[in-house]
Amino acid sequence: MKEGRALPTETPPLIEVSDVSVRLGGQEVLKHVDLNIHAGEIVTLIGPNGAGKTTLLRVVLGLLNPTRGRVMCRRGVTFGYVPQRFAIDPTLPMTVRRFLSLPKRRSRTDIENALEEVGAGYTIDRELQALSGGEFQRVMLARGLLRRPDVLVLDEPLQGVDVGGQIALFDLIGRLRRAHGFAVLMVSHDLHLVMSSTDHVVCLNHHVCCHGEPEAVSRHPEYRELFGRDAGRALAIYHHAHDHGHDAHGNVVPLNRDGTPQRKTGSERE
Ligand SMILES: Nc1ncnc2c1ncn2[C@@H]1O[C@H](COP(=O)(O)OP(=O)(O)OP(=O)(O)O)[C@@H](O)[C@H]1O
After folding, report:
1. 160 and 89 Cβ atoms separated by less than 8 Å
2. Checking DSSP bridges between strand 200-205 and strand 183-187, what pairing results, if any?
3. How does pLDDT run across 54-86, given as a tens digit for each residue?
4. Ligand 1 centroid distance, CA of 253 (Å)
């Protein structure tokens, strides 16, 4: 699933998060976070519960002001957002078509096309409440597509989706990214899928513990400490013979005898 294409890091980023800290309810939820998102790349935030992942998404989206630091967006950047929770009044009947026409009215054709793209065309006249978890997530993706985003922001898009459906959904996200060229910023807890489908992984635990290509992150001591030594195997099923490693910036570096990259990364933050 991983495409192995070069990251477009030579172009200026679409989004640049610099030295962002956020304090909520007396707690420092984010500390000195830096993050760049380039056009067309998939960036995934991983980290334990309460690590500040959703908070960082909200800062990037401009829904929450950082206590310190800043977020620079390229002029005219549009976001599609699929939040982690979506409160729907269960007593309020609403079809998928009507849901996708809110808050901005959309033509039936646009809605049909977006639903077809996510493989959920058949749901258009169904009640939202009657959808399965996987169908609902696809409808939410269609909702994001209708905004014609430069950056699609997905907060745990795999929730409520069974294992087979999760792989299909990650594949779909990759295909949509290729078809539309948007960047994807997402939060996911599924290390296997993240490690096989992402260009750039950011391991967050209030601060950025480490970041880089999945290969580099899976070898990082802080990643292993957070997710356990077995987490290194998240890459194993997709692993192929490699005569080199990558540092946390994605640069190719020689391997030590124990298989770790030779050069020390400079990306760790305190
Ligand atoms: N509005 C708020 N006021 C006070 N504390 C908040 C607020 N929003 C979030 N927090 C706290 O900030 C911390 C980080 O929350 P956040 O939702 O960003 O974590 P997360 O990494 O997305 O977690 P999860 O994986 O469980 O979804 C948590 O301890 C949460 O309780």
Report:
1. no
2. unpaired
3. 999 999 999 999 999 999 999 999 999 988 777
4. 36
Q: Is the pLDDT of residue 137 over 60?
A: yes
CA dist., res. 205 & res. 226, Å (int): 9
Report the predicted TM-score, pTM, of the whole model to 2 decimal places.
0.80
56 Cα–ligand 1 center, Å = 10
Give residue 52's Cα distance to chain centre: 14
Compute the C-alpha angle 252/255/261, nearest 5°: 65
Atom of ligand 1 nearest to the CA of 55: 18
Same domain, yes or no: 2 and 125: no
Instruction: Check: CB of residue 46 under 8 Å from CB of residue 220.
Output: no
* Residue 121 shares a structural domain with residue 200: no
Q: Please indicate, yes or no, whether residues 187 and 267 belong to a single structural domain of this protein.
A: yes
Tell me what the mean pLDDT of segment 92-100 comes to: 91
Peptide bond into 149 cis (omega under 30): no
Domain of 22?
1-78+150-270
Between CA 148 and CA 35 the distance in angstroms is: 23
The share of the chain scoring above pLDDT 70, in percent, equals 79
CA distance 191 to 69: 29
Q: What is the distance in angstroms between the CA of the first residue and the CA of the last residue of the chain?
A: 33
Q: Is the domain of 154 the same as that of 270? A: yes
| C-alpha 109: how far from chain center | 28
